[in-house]
Write a structure and sequence with these properties.
The structure is a single chain. 28% of the residues lie in helices and 32% in strands. With 216 residues, it is of the alpha+beta class. The protein starts with a helix and ends with a helix.
Length: 216
Amino acid sequence: MKAGTFSFYLALAVSALVVSASFDPTKEALDIRAELFPNAEDFKFNLFEAAAANNGAGAMIQAGSQSRFPALNGLGLCYFLFTLEPCGMNLPHVHPRATELIYLVKGYGLTVGFSEENGGRVLVNRKLRKGWTTVFPMGLPHWQINTSCYPVQFISALNHADPGVVTLPDRLLTTSIPDYVLSVVFNVPRGKVQDIRDRLSSRDLEAECKKRCGIN
């Protein structure tokens, strides 16, 4: 290699090192964060006062998602507050993009479970109470039910900004899956599939629990 060519490449390498040394990705992140969220108040959110929505049978959900708490932007997480009334259930569902961890903040008598993939186990934990934590691995069907006669509340944290949710009974019966497929799934004549849909259009609490708790 000629001396002039070598000097050129040497100078280019030195310049690249200087640029690399002067680039601080942390400072860039700090600048973006300061621009988007200039105030300390941007980093707090009252989950207990968030709008509530029905989520199952006797279950309410309040979201701390990125759309309601913008400071979560880019952090790869979201969280929710669930309230299960006596005998209430968060129906079996799947989060296709996230693992979920829940922490009980009120009550006792929470039963939770999840099913592993085909050939695996069904794991159930009963009578969880305030202060307990449990986890549901990503992509596995899971559920929560309050077997006590008093409300239960828990925080649900997921490690994705958009974890997704597939509520299994709803997606199975309210989508365009053909009746001839569902007739095999439920082992009923094709003409009876709509009857199953109709029965599931409204849900009630579990009968034995209602009787024990004196719920009409």
